[in-house]
């Protein structure tokens, strides 16, 4: 097997000579090296740090084919969920919503909250894949834990037991991705973004997810990410979203660009823009949608799931409605954003959204 400095030299050539397949091989080598070394030695870390830094400086790690190949390299070490009958009903569409993180905005856990609300809409199953906080004070895994779920009980062996009877599932990434576990310490020590920072949304362990809303932290990443998603998930329909205020979600203020990748076509990516008025909602500054930490966020979400608010009465509530509507419209192949908001409110005020969360917590705890 070639050594890592070989690949670093390919990156450092002008122009870089590293191919996407070379990156697949390099990521494989990194993971296997870290998995087999128990000493955390300088001799191991320095070549890896050098390669990842050179890759970041080259910009190749933000190109579609390279992102896709890196994701495939990581997935070969992941515990992928195998389902005998993934589509429990032909009338149910399975969707995920997740962002790259790294936008630095520290907003409320809107992706997780919207996932819960959307799971209360008839015909939608949400299989949310996420992690704990890295650049914010409350990640999806942190919030879910405070709400009463033990994510460690949900793994590749137990997901099939939960699949048919739950419209909401949460999969905590570290329990599925052994490869990412091995690079965690290196990423922490390196303290700069690397290609691993953008791979999370590309690593969903359930292959049969039909629709995906993936957020990116920068406009420059949007089109490339949509193309990468179409390569990694060729049978899925994908929205890649970027809020113009610098947000990896549909923004509660200003415009959001959406890149639309349809199944089986990684070359044809359409794009359009959204803004709150198109949903019948008012705008709210990000300062009113801030994360207050997992405990406070859980209290706020619980209050909202109890039906204490209506559209226009609370900034975070509207923020959740906005993102839930996008999930609804993608699942139902329309762009009736106002109807999506109505469906979200119906899911909340009927109690179905809260019930889907409660059932998942109960069923997963009983495993």
TrEMBL record:
GO cellular component: cytosol
Protein name from the UniProt record: Anthranilate phosphoribosyltransferase
Keyword Amino-acid biosynthesis: yes
Lineage of the organism: Eukaryota, Fungi, Dikarya, Ascomycota, Saccharomycotina
Entry similarity comment: Belongs to the anthranilate phosphoribosyltransferase family.
Organism: Lachancea meyersii CBS 8951
Entry's Gene Ontology molecular function annotations: anthranilate phosphoribosyltransferase activity
Pfam name, any one: Glycos_transf_3
Pathway: Amino-acid biosynthesis; L-tryptophan biosynthesis; L-tryptophan from chorismate: step 2/5
